[in-house]
Structure formats: structure tokens, C-alpha cells
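>> Question from a student workshop board

For tomorrow's exercise we were told to take the sequence and the ligand below, predict the bound structure, and bring the output to class. My setup keeps failing. Could a helper post the expected result so I can at least see what it should look like? The ligand is iron/sulfur cluster.
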Amino acid sequence: MFDFISTVINEFLSCFVPEKVYYDVVGECKKCGKCCNYMYSVDTYTEKEFKIMQFLFPKYRRFYIKGRDEFGNFVFACKLVTEDGLCSDYEHRLRMCKIYPMKRLPYKAKLHDGCGYKVVGKNFKDYLKTKNPD
Ligand code: SF4
Ligand code: SF4
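>> Workshop helper replied:
Here is what the output should look like for this input. Compare the format with yours to find the bug.
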């Protein structure tokens, strides 16, 4: 009897499980350089924190604080981006540069205006279509 009640409760609760959605990033880079000139850090809130990060990880010394956005978040830029929007040290660019933008995300990211990539949300039905196009 307990198993039956448990099954009924789980069946009821399953109605409230949100559908899983993931986001594909599709397109191609237009080499505009915006992502090297305007970037965010999810966990750097003060100049002191930024300086500590640069001290601990010298690879971040290529970045500087460009200003703040309308919400008060830091906007960073890289000293190595050229006026044409290209990387002047492409061979030695950081891993974060190589993997940007991630091709699949668990959340709806906002890309720079005019970026050659776009974020496309996909639910389970869309996923099945990619597996069984007919
Ligand atoms: S903002 Fe988009 S299009 Fe521009 S350089 Fe970065 S990835 Fe490429
Ligand atoms: S290292 Fe190169 S690719 Fe990375 S942010 Fe700087 S300019 Fe852009």
C-alpha cells in the first residue's frame, strides 16, 4: 500500500517538473572584437578582488577594468585586442578565449549586439527532432 501511495504522489509531483531546456549557440564569428573589448566576470565585484586575481594568476594581467555598465557591474577589456578587433597574441590566447562562445549552455546567455552567433533554446521535442529528423 505504501508503494502505491508513493507512486501516486510521485505521479502527481511529476506534473510540476519543469521541462528541461538547453541553449545551443550557433553561427560564426564576424571578428568584430566586441567580446575582447566588453567582457564580464561573474565573481569579481571590487577592484581589490580583480587585483588579487591578477596577482595570483598573471595571465589575467592582460585585462583591465574599462568601466561599469548601467547595473554597476564591471566591464573588462583586453589589452591585446587590436583596433581591427583581432587578437594580437592569437597563438597564446587563453583557454577562455578559445572556447568562447560555448556551443551549448544551460541558460539563455546574451551575446553582444551584432555578434555573428545567436542563442537558440531547445526543449526535449527539439532534441528528439535532431535525433529523428523524419
Ligand atoms: S562578439 Fe561575436 S562576432 Fe564579435 S568577435 Fe566576439 S564572437 Fe566574434
Ligand atoms: S587574449 Fe586575444 S582573444 Fe583573448 S581576450 Fe585578449 S584579444 Fe581577445
